């Protein structure tokens, strides 16, 4: 696989030799998922916070580049006297992503995109394990109101085979004030999904969306699976209200329910030793975005 770092250097060098135009977004988030019961015993609770920097560059009339850097900390709290709640399989997980997406417009209505990512996700005292991946796809605007894109991605996994995943792009203007989009306002971590957005006026926008959340990370040298891997998946349903305080600053309050949560533990020999579901849980949070 071509080194992501090398690719970023090539793109940066090209950008410096053209009349590039930049815009950047800096996001911050804090989300708390309330306590819920694990199927085999005990309870689990989660607090997540972090930030993301996205820089978009107009490289040529036909080529655009987005570079994204993200840091997130997930603080898991297991409790109880039985099951995973007693075992306490992991505590604090740090995740660092560096990614890029290059888009080439080969007509007024059609684009190709190519992306790459490096990700390091690990328990606080574990060795950091970096995995690499990429994606490719196609986006077409069928009209000024409807754009659809499809693609495929692949990423390495800790103590598991590489994972294939679909890439989905949607921008659908349903009316002057209503649209559906895959560019989630409540996107953080690895969440992907769709959101219905209503903009009643210039100061406020309201959204309801469903997303898929996935993370796989290296465990530390103690506990249930020393130097093994943990995995978490869920389907969050979110409702949010965003106040556009100025052209360069937004603040968002969100609430929702996390469905189909699952926790998995893999040992060093690649054997899954625990896979447990937990009950649906409520969640609240706050997000802020600065543009410059």
Could you give a short description of this structure?
The protein has 292 residues and is mainly β. Strands 1-2-3-4-5-6-7-8-9-10-11-12-13-15 form a 14-stranded antiparallel barrel. 6% of the residues lie in helices and 68% in strands.
Fold blueprint:
Blueprint: H1 4-16, E1 21-37, E2 43-58, E3 63-79, H2 83-87, E4 92-105, E5 110-123, E6 130-143, E7 146-157, E8 160-173, E9 178-181, E10 192-198, E11 204-218, E12 229-246, E13 249-266, E14 272-278, E15 281-291
Antiparallel strand pairs: 1-2, 1-15, 2-3, 3-4, 4-5, 5-6, 6-7, 7-8, 8-9, 9-10, 10-11, 11-12, 12-13, 13-14, 13-15
How would you write the strand order of the largest sheet? 1-2-3-4-5-6-7-8-9-10-11-12-13-15
CATH architecture classification = Beta Barrel
The amount of helix comes to under 10%
Sheet-strand content, in percent, reads: over 45%
Q: Radius of gyration, rounded?
A: 20 Å
Query: Poorly predicted ranges (pLDDT <50, ≥5 residues)?
Result: 1-20
What descriptive keywords fit this protein?
292 residues, mainly beta, Porin, 14-stranded antiparallel barrel, 6% helix
Would you mind describing this structure in some detail?
This protein is mainly beta and 292 residues long. The protein is 6% helix and 68% strand. A 14-stranded antiparallel barrel has the order 1-2-3-4-5-6-7-8-9-10-11-12-13-15. The protein is globular.
């Amino acid at each position: 696989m071509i080194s992501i770092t090398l690719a970023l250097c090539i793109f940066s060098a090209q950008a410096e030799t053209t009349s590039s135009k930049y815009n950047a977004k800096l996001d911050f988030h804090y989300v708390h998922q309330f306590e819920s019961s694990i199927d085999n015993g005990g309870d689990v609770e989660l607090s997540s916070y972090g930030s993301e920097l996205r820089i978009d560059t107009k490289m040529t009339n036909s080529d655009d580049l987005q570079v994204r850097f993200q840091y997130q900390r997930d603080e898991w709290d297991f409790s109880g006297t039985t099951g995973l709640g007693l075992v306490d399989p992991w505590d604090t997980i740090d995740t660092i992503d560096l990614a890029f997406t290059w888009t080439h417009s080969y007509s007024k209505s059609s684009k190709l995109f190519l992306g790459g990512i490096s990700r390091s996700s690990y328990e606080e005292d574990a060795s950091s394990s970096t995995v690499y991946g990429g994606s490719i796809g196609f986006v077409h605007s069928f009209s000024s109101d409807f754009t659809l894109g499809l693609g495929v991605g692949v990423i390495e996994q800790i103590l598991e085979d590489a994972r294939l995943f679909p890439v989905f792009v949607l921008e659908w203007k349903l009316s002057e004030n209503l649209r559906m989009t895959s560019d989630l306002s409540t996107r953080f971590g690895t969440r992907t999904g769709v959101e219905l957005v209503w903009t009643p006026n210039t100061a406020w926008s309201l959204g309801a969306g469903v997303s898929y959340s996935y993370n796989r990370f290296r465990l530390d040298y103690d506990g249930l699976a020393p130097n093994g891997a943990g995995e978490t998946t869920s389907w969050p349903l979110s409702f949010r209200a965003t106040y556009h305080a100025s052209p360069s600053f937004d603040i968002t309050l969100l609430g929702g329910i996390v469905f189909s949560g699952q926790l998995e533990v893999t040992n060093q020999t690649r054997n899954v030793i625990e896979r447990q579901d937990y009950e649906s849980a409520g969640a609240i949070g706050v997000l802020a975005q600065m543009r410059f």
